[in-house]
């Protein structure tokens, strides 16, 4: 069985239209016997297991209607893990006040506290080390277009 990614993406959008979630990624494995459809969703306030179950059931129903109930596939609907980079500007809002590590398009890295999210980027108070002392620079706007990868720094303080 071969799934059409564009068709699945459309079915997925139909499955989430009335929910406060958005798609981060949709992948389909190459297995011809039993392909695995993996959907990664997120929401501005995070994503709970109940929403994953709801979307999974809706999407499975649509797939069964389109490809027939005898279609053999595995469906996984999940949220991004804590170690996954932020890939959509809507993901940043719930991380205000947390430390981010940014890899920028120009090859540089910045680590600092995200103070705010704006339409064009984030306000980041960069942490710099001078000898053995750490200090914070005043927050500056880092445009989303300049961010190649952003990860939340997980600390267990």
Quick gist of this model?
The chain is an alpha+beta fold. It has helices at 5-16, 49-67, and strands spanning 22-28, 36-42, 74-78, 99-104, 109-117, 121-130, 133-136, 140-143, 147-152.
Under the CATH scheme, which class of the largest domain? Alpha Beta
What count of structural domains?
2
Gyration radius from CA atoms, angstroms:
19 Å
Distance between the termini: 49 Å
Tell how many strands the DSSP assignment holds: 9
- Estimate the global geometry from the Cα principal axes: elongated
Specify the biggest β-sheet. Answer: 6 strands, antiparallel
Mean pLDDT: 92
Protein name: Ribosome maturation factor RimP
Family: Belongs to the RimP family.
GO cellular component, one term: cytosol
Main location: cytoplasm
Please provide a written account of the structure.
- It is a single chain.
- By secondary structure, the protein is of the alpha+beta class.
- It folds into 2 domains: about 5-80, Alpha-Beta Plaits; about 90-150, SH3 type barrels (Roll).
- About 20% of the residues lie in helices and about 35% in strands.
- It contains 2 helices and 9 strands, in the order αββαβββββββ.
- The protein has helices at about 5-15, 50-65; strands at about 20-30, 35-40, 75-80, 100-105, 110-115, 120-130, 135, 140-145, 145-150.
- The strands form 2 sheets. Strands 4, 5, 6, 7, 8 and 9 form a 6-stranded antiparallel beta sheet that branches.
- A hairpin with a 2-residue loop joins strand 6 and strand 7.
- Helix 1 (about 5-15) packs across helix 2 (about 50-65).
- The chain starts with a helix and ends in a 5-residue tail after the last strand.
- The mean pLDDT is about 90.
- Required for maturation of 30S ribosomal subunits.
- InterPro entries: Ribosome_maturation_RimP, RimP_C, RimP_N, RimP_N_sf.
- Its main location: cytoplasm.
């Amino acid at each position: 069985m071969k799934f059409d990614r564009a068709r699945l993406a459309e079915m997925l959008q139909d499955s989430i239209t009335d929910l406060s979630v958005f798609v981060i990624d949709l992948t389909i494995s190459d297995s011809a016997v039993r392909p695995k459809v993996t959907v990664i969703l997120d929401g501005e306030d995070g994503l709970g297991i109940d929403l994953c179950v709801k979307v999974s059931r809706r999407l499975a129903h649509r797939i069964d209607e389109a490809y027939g109930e005898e279609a053999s596939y595995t469906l996984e609907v999940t949220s991004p893990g804590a170690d996954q980079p932020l890939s959509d500007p809507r993901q940043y809002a719930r991380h205000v006040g947390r430390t981010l590590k940014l890899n920028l398009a120009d090859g540089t890295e910045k680590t600092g506290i995200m103070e705010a999210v704006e339409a064009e980027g984030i306000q980041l108070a960069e942490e710099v080390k001078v000898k053995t002392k750490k200090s914070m620079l005043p927050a500056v706007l880092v445009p989303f277009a300049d961010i190649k990868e952003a990860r939340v720094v997980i600390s267990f303080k």
